[in-house]
Inverse folding.
């Protein structure tokens, strides 16, 4: 750098022109000479720095010997735990169906109808009216709801029997073949 500033003040560089090899000209006037053994020294210094860095890295890696104390393992464990908890909550709510309890308007209509008709009936006909109302409204509806329940139970038995028959057939085939 000193040569450059020295030769920069000297105007001979511009006046002389290029005589001979340009690399010699640059070495002389610009100071671009490479000292002997420069690349060998720099190579050795670079290799020394790399060795120091690798020894520092290996020393820092040896500090975390315990597997479950590594941050990567901690993140995996936390994610697994969160997944298991969310799966548990989801499975608990999976089979629950929200049933909306609808008011039985038919029952309310029955009571209004009976009340209105009872107002219009004579006192002497009240016993006959209660018998007819009891038979038509209460017993018939009870019988119909009981039939619906019987049909539901019967359907479940038939489905259960068909599943049992399928299982028995498959098991029988497995036992006979094996």
């Amino acid at each position: 750098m000193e040569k450059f500033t020295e030769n920069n003040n000297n105007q001979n560089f511009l006046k002389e022109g290029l005589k001979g090899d340009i690399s010699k000209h640059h070495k002389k006037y610009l100071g671009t000479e490479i000292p002997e053994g420069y690349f060998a020294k720099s190579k050795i210094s670079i290799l020394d720095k790399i060795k120091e860095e690798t020894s520092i890295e290996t020393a820092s890696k040896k500090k975390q010997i315990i597997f479950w104390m590594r941050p990567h393992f901690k993140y995996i464990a936390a994610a697994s735990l969160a997944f298991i908890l969310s799966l548990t909550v989801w499975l608990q709510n999976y089979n629950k169906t929200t049933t909306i309890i609808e008011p039985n308007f038919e029952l309310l209509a029955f009571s209004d109808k009976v009340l209105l008709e009872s107002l219009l009936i004579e006192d002497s006909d009240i016993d006959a009216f209660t018998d007819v109302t009891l038979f038509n409204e209460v017993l018939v509806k009870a019988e119909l709801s009981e039939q619906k329940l019987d049909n539901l139970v019967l359907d479940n038995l038939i489905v259960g029997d068909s599943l049992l028959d399928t299982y028995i057939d498959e098991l029988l085939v497995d036992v006979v073949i094996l």
About this structure: The mean pLDDT is 73.
